[in-house]
Amino acid sequence: MPATCEASSLVALLVQRCASTTNLRKARQLHGLILTSLPTITPSPYVNNNILSMYARCGSIGDACQLFDKMPHRSIVSFNALISAFSRGSLHAISAFNLFHQLEIEGLRPNGSTYTSLLQASSLLEKCTPGSMLHARLVKSGFAGDTCVQTSLLGMYSNCGDLESAENIFNPMVDKDAVAWNSMILGYMKNENIASGLQLYGSMVRSSTLPTQFTYSMILIACSRQIDLVSGKAVHAQLVACVFRRIEYPDLVSWNSMISGYSENGLAQEAMEMFVQFQRISSFKPDQYTFAAIISATATSPYSNYGKPLQAQVIKAGYERSVHVGSTLISMYFNNKETGCAQKVFSSILEKDTVLWTDMISGHCRMADGENAVKFFHLMRREGLKVDSFALSSTLSACADLVILKQGEMIHCLAIKTGYDFEISVCGSLIDMYAKNGELQAAESIISTVSSPDLKCWNAMLGGYGHHGKAVEAMKVFDEILKNNLSPDKVTFISLLSACSHDGWVDKGKLLWNCMKENGLRPGPKHYSCMVSLLSRAGLLEEAERMIVDSPFSEDNVDLWKALLSSCITHKNFEMGVRAAEQVLDVDGDDCATHVLLSNLYAAAGKWGDVIRTRRKMKHLVLEKDPGLSWIEVMNEIHVFCSGDQSHPMMKEMHTELLSIKGNMKSKVDRNFTL
Hints:
Elements: H1 3-21, H2 24-37, H3 45-57, H4 61-70, H5 76-86, H6 93-105, H7 112-125, H8 128-141, H9 147-159, H10 163-170, H11 178-190, H12 194-206, H13 213-226, H14 229-244, H15 252-264, H16 268-281, H17 288-297, H18 307-317, H19 323-335, H20 339-348, H21 354-366, H22 370-382, H23 389-402, H24 405-418, H25 424-436, H26 440-449, H27 455-467, H28 471-483, H29 490-503, H30 506-518, H31 525-537, H32 541-550, H33 558-570, H34 574-587, H35 592-604, H36 608-620, E1 630-634, E2 637-641, H37 651-667
Antiparallel strand pairs: 1-2
Helix pairs in contact: 1-2, 1-3, 3-4, 3-5, 4-5, 5-6, 5-7, 6-7, 7-8, 7-9, 9-10, 9-11, 10-11, 11-12, 11-13, 12-13, 13-14, 14-15, 15-16, 15-17, 16-17, 17-18, 17-19, 19-20, 19-21, 20-21, 21-22, 21-23, 22-23, 23-24, 23-25, 24-25, 25-26, 25-27, 26-27, 27-28, 27-29, 28-29, 29-30, 29-31, ...
């Protein structure tokens, strides 16, 4: 290699390294050193282009222009370097286009790098016209398939607010890199289409494209603007995972943080994979926090079957009495409807804290076992533990479901005494408790004291009005929900449709039904049940039957057919009633109530032979009505019983006392009131 070529290569390498520092003072020193140290060597075009790029990267447009004007031989690389420099700021964006025209005058042919820089300049101008003209030129020149050019086009259209053109560029792209995804997401964000931006981020993650720091920054800001804490936490977890992958030797705390992060954000599969990876490659043994995190992840399907094997590992590791692990085990068993297993775990832990007791209270509430929820609340207090807002809220919910006003009022007093009566979760449960107990005025009084009621509070009030058939008041609450810029959820519409059903507001019910679907809420079984009840009560039996048939629950939800069957008896529609009864009995042939209703339907139609046949079938199936349960509150305890119940431990004493009362009643008859 000639000495001059070797010197040029060395100089070019020094210039490139200096450019990477973006230090203008050092760049000028190096340029001066080149000119003074090598006076006999004229810098080659290759060296000059590198110096030009160095000044551009250091932000000195003036130095770059001076050098460009003095260059004896300017190639397309020289023009691209200066155009790129002009495209870095909006003040010089017009100069980039002027230099482009000069390039063409000198007979040079623009390449992909030229168009990339010019599109960046056009993006800074925030005007679509120059960018669209460039788009046409580069298509004609054959650069439309260049990935860098496509990405620059995408950024230009997004920044100029032309999302349709941006989507037309983005969607057909085969190899989308992180820059392309970021450009499209940024375009949505800048044009206030945050929902589409978040949706596109999800597509980016699913495409296995690794998000950049800029991606995470955009999405976290979007979640903040949308007040979407759940999505924000999920993105944060992914960001943490990205950092975790860069740790060469993660410690136990790092592993636990990752498993816990996935678990808390509902990413059960990722949590399981991380736990398996931890056991396979890590030298650490799982501690109580590891077990708590992974058990929490397995609390829901399809991973619920992993819970018991994990409990075996917990016992083997000696953490079976850990409160932290016990809490997650109890929650897991309640989620899987294994109340007995949850009780065993609770009993095995000697030092129980408030969280553990609250898990038992809330767990029984979720299982619709309000009696035991209230029982555990009182046992907790007898143990001398302080109640918190979660324990109070869960117990009040149990009182609401059991319709025990006295207990609810006592817990309300306790909430006031402990200072939790202004907690929003407690307020919502108080409103629900009073509303379900028929004390609507008390419920109204509580919601009026809440400065900013959340949707749970409004739904509780709405549910009370709906349950007691006060449709006018329910609609007023719905108006308040909308005035407070809250988004109604499925619970809101269940209460509204129930209120309409009670008052026979068919047109209003249909309007709400359409409103719910327009708001993106898919009707569930309870919504269909309310609508079927509304239509069938109003005598619109055919419309009600058509709604059941068209619903996704027609084959497995017998409650819909039962509601129709009941109205068929009222409106004496024999044929439809039989069809409804057959649908129920196809799913549950032993349903006693349906057999009774079918028998009544035959009787109303005067088909006594069918009545006898149905009754015989009931006897053949040995069907009996389910016993009706009652409960009574005595000395702060709830006692559940049914007719003929002999299971109470103090049955003998109760029977003796009852005989004594009966005898006294006979011996003290006031004959003044006898005929």
